[in-house]
Amino acid sequence: MTTGAEALENAVKIARHYTKRSGVIAFHGGFHGRTLLTMGMTGKIAPYKEGFGPFPGDIYHVPFPVPYQGIDTAYSLRQLEKLFKTDISPSSVAAIVIEPIQGEGGFYAAPLELMQKLRALCDEHGIVLVFDEVQTGFGRTGKTFASEHFDVQPDIITVAKALAGGYPLSGIIGKSDIMDSPAPGGLGGTYGGSPVGCAAALAVLDELESKNLNARAGEIGGRLYQALVDIKTRQPWLPVNHIRHKGAMIAFDFVTGEEPEPSLIAPFVKACRDNGLILLPCGQFGNAIRLLPPLTVESDILDEAIEIIEKSLLNLV
Predict the structure, then answer these.
(1) How many folded domains does the chain comprise?
(2) pLDDT at 317 over 80
(3) Cα(221)–Cα(244) distance, rounded to whole angstroms?
(4) Whether residue 132 lies in the annotated active site
(5) One of 31, 64, 138, 145 is an active-site residue; which one?
């Protein structure tokens, strides 16, 4: 496979074949791809879904916990139970798909309690639990897979992005009885198993181990997190808050009080770009900035990025 979306599509196909069910449950704010099925699973309209419907049926969404937005684990689980009472029986659900840490949704980590409850619920009802680790996999969070932070074992993990260091390669990791369910030839693709992509992935795995990049991700995240906290401490009037990270996945929100302030995103991103730093916005309300430095980034480059961020923030106010 070549893309994260293709990995998610095949994960759903495998889950449906294994369970003989069709329903899929995903979460608000989640991003799973740009194909028709994965757009349907994605829990954010603009810019991914607007104007591209209708989407496949039998896909349902529940809120993802973001406490400062008034959504905690208990509320998410109540909404899931309500979904089972009003829209789809758990006996009709093939898969629950979740990012351990949302990417496009704003770099919010799933609470441990939610992951444990989902595992128990899937075990109770025979549902396949799928962790989308396309963005969180291969050292990004300080562990090879973000699921390791939760001590919860999914049935399927989807991988891509960092897997091959930029070459088009994706994959699915799963329990053998589930993965072996489709008949030979049931899964495939024109460019599946690219020899160059596979060679690149092997090189990435060597680098991950030989350079101890899991530990380096923790150092990078800790450095950037503390720098952002220090900037906010020195200039408490800056309209940024909710600074967060897990390993080298770092993000913060533009807010006015506790209200999202997406209008500041474009000028901030432009100011950083004009000074040589490329950043990506994210978040359900388009008010978050995510930092995704390479795990091989040099410390002086990190320091330069921090200077640009502070300068650009100060120029906003």
Answers:
(1) 2
(2) no
(3) 9
(4) yes
(5) 31
Q: What is the token pair recorded at 26?
A: 């995903």
* Same-domain check for residues 240 and 118: no
Looking at the structure, do residues 180 and 38 belong to the same domain, yes or no?
yes
254 is catalytic: no
Tell me: do 177 and 238 sit in the same domain.
no
SS3 24: strand
Which of these is catalytic: 13, 64, 132, 285?
132
Domain shared by 128 and 237, yes or no: no
Closest CA to 151 of 98, 176, 115: 115
Q: Provide the whole-model pTM.
A: 0.94
Query: Which entry of 13, 44, 143, 161 is annotated as an active-site residue?
Result: 161
Count Cβ neighbours within 10 Å for each residue of 178-207 and write b for 16 or more, e otherwise.
bbebeeeeebeeeeeebeebeebbeebeeb
75 pLDDT tier (thresholds 50, 70, 90)? very high
Q: Helices 195-210 and 213-234 sit at what angle, rounded to 10 degrees?
A: 70
Q: Give long-range contacts, CB 8 A cutoff, 24+ apart: 244-247.
A: 244/107, 244/108, 244/109, 245/107, 245/221, 246/101, 246/107, 246/109, 246/141, 246/142, 246/146, 246/149, 246/221, 247/139, 247/140, 247/141, 247/142, 247/143, 247/214, 247/217, 247/218, 247/220, 247/221
Within this chain, do residues 196 and 222 fall inside the same structural domain, yes or no? no
Distance, in Å, from the CA atom of 268 to the CA atom of 215, rounded to the nearest integer, reads 30
Spell out where 191-284 has E strands. 240-246, 249-256, 259-260, 280-282
Q: Is 161 marked active-site?
A: yes
Domain carrying residue 300: 213-316
| % of residues, the chain, pLDDT over 70 | 100
168 and 303 inside one domain = no
